Structure formats: structure tokens, C-alpha cells
């Protein structure tokens, strides 16, 4: 909210000067503008949230079985810097194309995860009942996010008698949007009961690594507008709606366990992974102020906000606990794909950008 208030004050200050509606960039011969933008980004990641909660998608599989597992995670915001490259090509008064590329590598604090599991099975003919609650903390959390877009702007009002409308454009295009989340666990405390006998401790022999990569193909539609304030300065505003039409996501969970005996210690491990099908829908908006140093160079500061909802619709992730049970229903529930409920998360991101541009 504080960023919005700053932009409102700036707008009111600039609007007190003389107004210029004619866009000096607008020429029938066309022009090209290339921009490099440095950004500071804050993200509450839906990718990270879905990655840590995806084990809950086997909830319906576990009904009536001897084994149940419920995970509750808390995901921290990711912060960091990014880089964006953008090129506008104005082919005529009516049409302009936009090529966009962005990349950012971000990190967060610790992600806490409470893992509650119950298990009933037979060991050497004797029934065993376990109820276990572990308090895992994940560190080394990183989020790599990138976007490649090809967009076309149509200036339907470029011949309008109202000069304030000549820089209003309808934007249509598509983009490729990707995120990769990685995290690893640290030694964690646990409590539980085994056949009614309580136990507790700190597990320093088990390491879990989570990686979730996803790529979306999105259709984009929106509006953008440029308003000249003085011969050397202008405001611009953009609003885009995007929705996925294609998706490719992959989840991977690696565990490394150190087995300790009186005479020897040796590592072991397992890997669970598979394909995930997701869908994405959201919007983004931006507001910028540009100042021209000369006819060919300029400086711009901007604020952008994006919000989307990411839904996991299907996955083929297996369950690793079925072999511990002598219950036929439990075994069957582990070999069929997850039946839900599948996680859904809201992704929000805001950024402040400083850019330098060159017109030619």
C-alpha cells in the first residue's frame, strides 16, 4: 500500500505541470526501444507451498488403510534481485511488438513443516502401531523464476480526435513462465508412541531434499497506456490477465539416511518423483515514470504487482509406505495414483525496478 501512495503523490505532482498528449515516439517509420531493468522482488510462492503440501494429495488413498500422513507447512516469503530485458518495436502508428525476458534467483528463511503420520503393520507376526509427529525445518530454500513473452500492442485509437486516447493499446500475446523451488531439511525433533509407549528424540541421520520445477504456457490479454506529462517525462500503466493452456511440472523428493550399527555406519536413501499437472490463472499490473535524458536515452522507475492461483490437478507420485503393511487395501492404495485433495496456493509478487533505455 505504501508504494501505491507514493505513486499517487508523484502523479499528482507531475499532473500539476503542463500536459502533453502527443507521443513523440509515435512515427509511421517506426522505432525500436531496448531496456535493461534491475528489480528488487518479494514473492510469496505458490510453487513452494504446493511442493511442501503435495504429499497431502494421497489423503483419499489413505481412507480405510493402515497408514495415514498429513503435512502442514509454513512457507516464508522469497526475496532477491532480478534482471529483465525488454524490446519494443513500433512498426507503425497502429501496431507494436514487445519481446520480454526476465530471470531472478531468490532465497527465503527457514520453512517449518509439521509431519503427522500413523502406521499399523506387522513385524515378524507381531502387530505394531506407530503414531509419529516430526517437526522438520527446511533451509537452503531457493526459488528461481523466469518469464519469456512475445506480445503485440494494437493502437485502435491512434486516429482518434481525442489525443488522450492515441496511446491506449490492446495487448495480446503468449508467454512461457517457469519456477523451480528447492529445499533441504535439517536435523529435527520428533515425538510419538509405539504400541502405546512414548518416545522422542532428534533425528540427525535423515536428510530430505525437495525439488519442484514447473513451466506454464500462458495466453495473455491486457491494456497499456502512456501519458505524456512534459516533453521529457511520462507516466505509463499496464494491466494483463494470463491463463495457462499448457503445463509441464516435475516433483522430486530425495531422502538420505545414515544407518548406524555398533560396528559400522553406512548411508542409504530413496527417491520419489513424478509428473505433476497444474493450471495457472492470474493478473499483473505495473506503473512507471519515465524521464528522457535525450532523444535516444531515458531512465525509468517502476512498480509491478502480480497475483495468481496455481492448482495441482493431477499427479502420479507413488507412496513409499505400502510395503510396511499386510493390509491388502493399504497396498492397493499405494500403487494407484493420488486421488486428492490436491493443493492449491495463491502466488503474490511485487517488485520495484530501475531501468535504462535506448531508442534507435
Number of strands: 14
- How large is the radius of gyration? 27 Å
Gross morphology: elongated
Main sheet summary = 10 strands, antiparallel, barrel
Q: Could you state the order of secondary-structure elements as H and E?
A: HEHEEEEEEEEEEEEHE
- Overall pLDDT, averaged? 84
Please give the alpha-carbon distance between the first and last residues.
37 Å
Looking at the chains present, what oligomeric state does this protein adopt? Answer: single chain
Query: What topology, given as strand order, has the largest sheet?
Result: 1-3-4-6-7-10-11-12-13-14
Helix amount: under 10%
Q: Helix/strand-derived class?
A: mainly beta
Unreliable parts: 6-22
Amino acid at each position: 500500500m505504501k508504494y501505491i501512495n507514493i505513486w499517487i503523490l508523484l502523479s499528482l505532482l507531475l499532473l500539476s505541470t503542463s500536459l502533453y498528449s502527443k507521443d513523440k515516439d509515435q512515427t509511421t517509420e517506426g522505432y525500436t526501444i531496448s531496456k535493461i531493468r534491475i528489480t528488487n522482488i518479494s514473492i510469496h510462492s505458490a510453487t513452494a507451498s504446493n511442493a511442501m503440501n503435495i504429499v497431502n494429495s494421497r489423503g483419499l488413498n489413505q481412507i480405510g488403510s493402515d497408514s495415514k500422513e498429513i503435512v502442514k507447512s509454513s512457507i516464508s516469503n522469497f526475496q532477491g534481485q532480478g534482471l529483465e530485458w525488454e524490446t519494443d518495436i513500433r512498426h507503425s502508428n497502429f501496431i507494436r511488438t514487445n519481446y520480454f525476458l526476465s530471470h531472478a534467483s531468490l532465497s527465503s528463511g527457514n520453512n517449518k513443516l509439521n509431519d503427522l503420520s500413523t502406521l499399523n503393520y506387522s513385524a515378524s507376526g507381531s502387530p505394531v502401531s506407530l503414531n509419529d509427529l516430526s517437526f522438520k525445518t527446511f533451509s537452503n530454500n531457493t526459488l528461481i523464476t523466469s518469464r519469456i513473452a512475445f506480445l503485440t500492442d494494437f493502437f485502435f485509437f491512434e486516429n482518434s480526435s481525442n489525443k488522450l486516447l492515441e496511446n491506449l493499446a490492446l495487448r495480446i500475446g503468449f508467454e512461457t513462465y517457469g519456477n523451480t523451488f528447492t529445499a533441504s531439511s535439517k536435523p529435527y525433533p520428533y515425538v510419538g508412541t509405539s504400541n502405546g509407549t512414548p518416545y522422542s528424540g532428534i533425528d540427525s541421520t535423515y536428510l530430505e531434499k525437495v525439488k519442484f520445477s514447473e513451466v506454464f504456457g500462458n495466453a495473455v490479454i491486457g491494456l497499456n497506456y502512456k501519458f505524456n506529462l512534459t516533453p521529457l517525462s511520462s507516466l505509463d500503466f499496464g494491466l494483463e490477465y494470463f491463463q495457462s493452456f499448457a503445463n509441464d511440472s516435475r516433483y522430486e523428493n530425495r531422502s538420505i539416511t545414515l544407518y548406524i550399527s555398533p560396528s559400522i555406519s553406512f548411508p542409504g536413501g530413496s527417491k520419489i518423483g513424478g509428473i505433476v499437472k497444474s493450471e495457472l490463472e492470474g493478473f499483473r499490473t505495473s506503473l512507471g515514470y519515465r524521464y528522457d535524458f535525450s532523444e535516444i536515452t531515458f531512465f525509468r522507475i517502476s512498480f509491478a504487482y502480480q497475483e495468481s492461483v496455481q492448482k495441482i490437478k493431477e499427479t502420479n507420485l507413488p507412496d513409499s509406505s505400502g510395503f510396511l503393511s499386510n493390509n491388502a487395501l493399504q497396498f492397493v492404495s499405494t500403487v494407484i495414483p493420488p486421488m486428492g485433495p490436491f493443493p492449491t496456493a495463491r502466488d503474490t509478487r511485487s517488485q520495484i525496478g530501475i531501468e535504462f533505455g535506448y531508442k534507435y
